[in-house]
Every structure is written in C-alpha cells, then in structure tokens.
Here is the input.
Amino acid sequence: MGYNTNNPDKPKSKAEVICPYCGSPDTELFSLFGQQLLTVQYYCNACHTPFECIKDDDILDDYYVSDRLSEARTSFGSSARGAGNRSE
Here is the structure.
C-alpha cells in the first residue's frame, strides 16, 4: 500500500495506531468496517500486514477530515468533466 505516505498536505492524525505485529506506527486506514461493525481495518506499511482495531472517535474524526479534503480536491475536476457529457 503506502499510497498516502508521501503527501505533504496530509494533516497530522489524532489517532496513532500501532501495528500489533511489529510495533510500527507507520499504518494507514484500509477500511472503515472490519469483520464486526465496531472494528476498522488498518494496513501496516512496515511489515505489510492488515489488522483490525476497535473504532474510536479519533479514528472516525481522522477519516472524516481526510474524506472531506479528498472530496474538495476532486469535486472541481469532476464537475468540469461532467458538463460536456450531456445526452439529449
């Protein structure tokens, strides 16, 4: 994975999730839902292992902020592309 690790505009995360296998803090949110509704899936960029942890407010706040930033960056480009593709 590691596709978000070189983003200089990435805000500092409130929740620092540590990999339970290697102890590295170099993790990223993989999915908002794990096998249970109260868990989220993370991916460790150090040992390349997916793992689950229990949701808390800091994790959900971080997701909400990053989702809003990516939505703001892509909304301008998608609205300009969609204008010319109208079928009558």
About this structure: Residues 2 and 19 are 14 Å apart (CA to CA). Residues 27-74 form one domain. DSSP finds one helix and three strands in the chain. The first helix runs from residue 57 to 82.
